Amino acid sequence: xxxxxxxxxxxxxxxxxxxxxxxxxxxxxxxxxxxxxxxxxxxxxxxxxxxxxxxxxxxxxxxxxxxxxxxxxxxxxxxxxxxxxxxxxxxxxxxxxxxxxx
Amino acid sequence: xxxxxxxxxxxxxxxxxxxxxxxxxxxxxxxxxxxxxxxxxxxxxxxxxxxxxxxxxxxxxxxxxxxxxxxxxxxxxxxxxxxxxxxxxxxxxxxxxxxxxx
DNA sequence: TGAACATATGAATATCTGTTCATATTTGCA
DNA sequence: TGCAAATATGAACAGATATTCATATGTTCA
Lengths: 102, 102
What we know:
alpha+beta, 58% helix, DNA-binding
């Protein structure tokens, strides 16, 4: 039987993780990347075009988002296709946007 | 009749605002402040104690959060009592924490 | 009025973060 | 095999950001 954490207890580490989670959404380039991926998976070249950032900047940011497991990817020939990791990411973005749009 | 924005159209500026919103949640001290305020209003001294940050650091961060209208305050004698601006803030925090706690 | 308390502010500093530039890696194809 | 396309990586730089320290402001009360 797998050990389960008690979700009702908020540790200091949880608060650090929470800040880190939001940090991932706190940069314009990353937001543009995530927002573009809300409509479906895209290769790097498409993301470069959608964000207006350089290929290098996009690649660096994709790495960060991937490390946070907010996005995942698969290879398809020469291309790498990125997509949102799960619905949670979608929901958080949507909720933030609702707030911005009041 | 007041002009209404079309909420279905996402502008580049919206994406900037969205990043800024999440930026407010992206620092450990600010998260601790907001999280403490989820359980109810608190004066600065209490917030200093809960966060473990210095009085000055807390005051600086409170100012930022207030400017974003994520928190508000009222004076009560010598003290200043801070509280979350609205339920939206509460919801965003809760949703983020749900994700962290998987 | 003056002392003590609570909070806010400004400047300086150190750290963190994102971008750029140059280059490396991987893959498909002639 | 060699070249071109797609993406990733590393180092360096610039700008942003959080904290600290010193001090200012505002409030209560004796």
